[in-house]
Amino acid sequence: AGLFFVSIGMLVDPGFLVENALPVLAVLALIVPAKGLVVGLLAAAFRLPLRTALMSAITLAQSAEFSFLLASLGRQLDVLEATEFSSLIAGAILSVVLLPGLLHLGGGVADRLDRRRDDDLAARPAEGAASEVMSGHAVICGHGRVGRIVTQALVGQGVPVAVLDQEPREILPLREAGHLALLGSADNEVLLARASVDRAALLVIAVPDRASVRRIVRFARQVNPGIVIVARTHELAERDYLETHGVDEAVVGELELALEMARFALRSSEIDPAAVDEYLDVVRHSNDGLEDA
């Protein structure tokens, strides 16, 4: 990658930049603000978090390798004049050079937006039972498609829950329903302490990030050695690691999907349900059931 961009950079004549500053700046304006705006609007349309939308827009608001190929092809086909070609190359390279600074600036803006969001949430409904000392409850880390179903099942059976998630749209309805719901990263030790994980009976880790899961497990075991922990993962090797480092049950998503399909198929063949369950349990705890990609 370094060789590629160094080679492209050698195509730029500093004297050309000075003599043709306006065309180069026009190209740069078309690349960075226009492309960034399109990416940001797409991210917003898919309801991604504001920080994600902003940082995605900045990261992708630069010219990629394909643009250099198109410019070269245009020059070879005499579609572009030499001045136009040089302006395109110079503008594209400047967009790449500006990226680190824009990322730094965007990170600061995102932090300020997060703080403002937190201030706005402070004026919303209180955090349910946050002021109370909970005990014997379930702590749910991550309230996406997986965590949401677990929460629904526990609440439906009368189990008190404390939920940690980074999305306001997940947290606010829980607070309004009277549940303890904390906004922020689930591996934040301060939030875990506020969720009374040291007094909880169950910890459900539904976040997909491997490093976050390990940090949550490590902290929970330190403050509450007797807590029951179930976590999600997508790898057999990670399942084995988690179950030897404090997790009572590490669920491999793809494996459980395959096992449920196999259960249905075997029972449809009129095989004894007890025999099916026993066989699938053997497969579940064997490393031969699913190969890691």
Describe this structure in words.
Helices cover 61% and strands 9% of the residues. The protein has helices at residues 2-9, 14-19, 21-45, 50-60, 65-76, 82-122, 145-156, 168-176, 189-194, 210-223, 236-243, 253-268, 273-284, and strands at 138-141, 161-165, 180-183, 202-205, 228-233, 249-252. It has a 6-stranded parallel β-sheet with strand order 3-2-1-4-5-6, with helices on both faces. Helix 11 links the parallel strand 5 (228-233) and strand 6. The longest helix is centred in the middle third of the chain and has 41 residues, at 82-122. The two termini are 26 Å apart.
Question: What is the fold's blueprint, element by element?
Answer:
Elements: H1 2-9, H2 14-19, H3 21-45, H4 50-60, H5 65-76, H6 82-122, E1 138-141, H7 145-156, E2 161-165, H8 168-176, E3 180-183, H9 189-194, E4 202-205, H10 210-223, E5 228-233, H11 236-243, E6 249-252, H12 253-268, H13 273-284
Parallel strand pairs: 1-2, 1-4, 2-3, 4-5, 5-6
Distance between the termini: 26 Å
Name the helicity range. 55-70%
Shape: elongated
Rg over alpha carbons: 26 Å
| Tally of alpha and pi helices | 13
**Mean pLDDT score:** 83
Largest sheet: 6 strands, parallel
Question: Order of SSEs, N→C?
Answer: HHHHHHEHEHEHEHEHEHH
Strand order of the largest sheet: 3-2-1-4-5-6
Report the portion of residues in β strands: 5-15%
Uncertain stretches of 5 or more adjacent residues? 125-131
Q: Structural class of the helices, strands and pairings?
A: alpha/beta
Task: Work out the number of β strands.
Answer: 6
